[in-house]
Write a structure and sequence with these properties.
With about 475 residues, the protein is mainly α. Among the domains are: about 120 residues, no CATH class; about 100 residues, Alpha Horseshoe (Serine Threonine Protein Phosphatase 5, Tetratricopeptide repeat), CATH 1.25.40. Helices cover about 65% and strands about 0% of the residues. It is built from 21 helices and no strands. α1 packs antiparallel against α2 and α8 packs antiparallel against α9. The longest helix is centred in the middle third of the chain and has 24 residues. InterPro entries: Cro/C1-type_HTH (IPR001387), TPR-like_helical_dom_sf (IPR011990). It comes from Streptomyces aidingensis. This is HTH cro/C1-type domain-containing protein.
Length: about 475
Amino acid sequence: MAVVTRTRRAAIQREAARIRRDGQRNGYATRRIAAAVRAALPEVTALEAWRLALGWSRAEAIAQVAACYHAEGLGLPGMNESMLCRWEHDPRERPSAEYAVMIARAYGASPEELGLTRRHLLALSAPAALRYGRDDDAMPLTRGEPPMTTAAGLPAVKESLRLALLADPGVAGPAVPEAAAAAAEHYALNYSRHPPHVLFGGVRAARELLTAPLSRASDRQAIELHRTVGRLSALMGNVAYHLADHSGAQVHLTAAAGCGARVGDVRLVAWTCGARSMVARSRGQTAVAVELAERGVAAAQGPLARAQLLGWALLPSLAAQGRAREAEDARRRADEAFAAAEEQPGRFGYDGAEHRLHAAEACIALGRVDQARPLAMASADACTPGTPGWAAATLLLARVEAAAGEPADAAARATAVLESVPAGRLRSTARARLAALDRCLHDVAEHRAVRELRDAVRALPAFIDSRGRASAGER
């Protein structure tokens, strides 16, 4: 996807508005105005050209699409400005068949004229079956990944858990522990598919539902519930970290470690050591980070858990202390363990993209920029564009380019991340990488791309405002 700077975007908006005014004075149809916009502005896609020809903002376009849903007697769709922005700017992103039909209806065009056709839309001759705004298939399916869950998925999981508790308030049978474990697994597997503050609320609500049943459950059921409460607490700690609430993360992760130790969940104990090491490292407590990482490595069972604790926790902690020889040994051991392991998805899993990301970051910390570049590139290539993992690896690659004397490329790459990922989905770790990149580019601020990046970073809304509310930040 070509990078278009914010300055150029503003110029596009002004020129498109002029073309629309001229076309309206001459009595041109919207179709002809859209064609004129595309002819004058080659960066503009057909979908965006039609919206500009109509003179609508994205919010107004979404309102018109919603009116089409209401005309069919359907509820408000889940479409938002961020989704429309991606569909307009990224050729890899396409709306579902349902959305394509309804957008075309709102714009007074056909899906073909809007450039919304894809293989399963080519045979579309009538409106697709409407599913009340579900956007499960709005995201591209790549690398064998399942479609993202909808925004309604999180509260629906909590509701099903509540129903299980209503059916068995005394927790006499296995239904409640099984539903609770399934809920925790859902949150772990879909961790990266929701903005952090939204996920935090969902996980917290589920954990709160389990508080009272813990006192009523039999010994056997209580063990399973404590295990699940521990996993939910661990997830809350990780999300709090990604919301830059490090003290809160420490509390949740410590609670998770206690639950894991109580029921003998060695995997959870090891993982929480790694997470607490990550938090300590972010707070500049590198000695504590190394100690926690070593405890996690000692507790880890199986090659994947060892690879994760070595690569995610110990390697970056040693690198932060500048202990190059020991860091290299940790990396070698992590690589060996990962080679013998089978990747697993989810927050408690580990994969090649994350493994290479941590190795690249350690190389940068140790001043080995040339070694970091291929690792960061491989990590980014293994991720779906727009995801948190992709953003992390891409920003790391920009940092490598900045250190290698390529400031314009570095700034353009980082700007592409900000254009692709809504602010509300940008984790605190991504913001920290942006801050580190800004420091690297401090002496080359005369470059236009660098100035534009700096302005974009400064324009990001605060993660948490003065009233303790998380920024929605969707564009």
